[in-house]
Design brief:
Length: about 110
């Protein structure tokens, strides 16, 4: 898959755990990201083309400068495409933050 965002993020997990990961967010100059100015969106493309969309308050939370992504359920085994973007509240401008893959393996639990 070609990387189309500034960052590529690849996540691995098992089918026996809740889908959950966190990433620190900061500006390119290392300063704190202005969370109050943006809405964060996350998309995970599931089998059959269905998409799981997380938004702030619905699977996305902010914790001490990190963004926490949680689907609150296990995912089926396989490889998925995912991405995150931010939407500037004042003008609707979209910026892609990352894309990549999610690989879920057998947890044998």
């Amino acid at each position: 898959m070609a990387n189309t965002a500034p960052y590529e993020v690849n996540v691995t997990g098992t089918d026996d755990e809740t889908f959950l990961f966190a990433l620190p967010f900061e500006n390119s100059d290392g300063t704190a990201f202005p969370f109050a100015d943006y809405e964060i969106e996350y998309s995970l493309k599931e089998r059959g083309g269905a998409r799981l969309l997380l938004t702030q308050g619905n699977g996305i939370s902010i914790d001490n400068g990190s963004v926490v992504f949680s689907a609150a359920r296990p995912m089926g085994r396989g490889t998925y495409e995912h991405g995150c973007r931010v939407r500037r509240i004042v003008n609707g401008q979209l910026v892609q933050v990352f894309d990549g893959t999610v690989t879920i393996g057998e947890g044998n639990f």
